[in-house]
Amino acid sequence: MEAKANANFVRVSPRKAAQMTDLIRGKKVVEAFTLLKFSQKAAGEVVGKVLKSAVANSKQKNIENLKVKEAYVGYGPTMKRMRAMAMGRGATVRKRLAHITIVVTD
Questions:
Q1: pLDDT digits (tens, 9 = 90+) for 16-38
Q2: Residue 15 structural domain
Q3: CATH (domain of 21)
Q4: Would the pTM count as exceeding 0.70?
Q5: Helices and strands (DSSP H and E) totals, the chain
Q6: Would you tell me which of 7, 22, 39, 89 could form a disulfide with 44, CB atoms 3.0–4.6 Å apart?
């Protein structure tokens, strides 16, 4: 049985979140939690929360049998901000958002 969890409009770069989802795709859930816990990336914490939600959505008590079937990141909207630069100019700062989806199966 499959269980799915989404996190939309997460304030983390989609490229950095995709590195974490690539790391856990196809692994057992217990191993994926370990990889995300000891990862040095800030996106690992967010992906770990989504994985925890997917495990909770599955109605299975024993998580040793669960496996990460799909894990992917989509691009969300980009917030555009201005930063003051020299000679009265302004530079655009793009703050990117991500949509993270994880599917677990037994």
A1: 999 999 999 999 999 999 999 99
A2: 2-105
A3: 3.90.470.10
A4: yes
A5: 3, 3
A6: 39
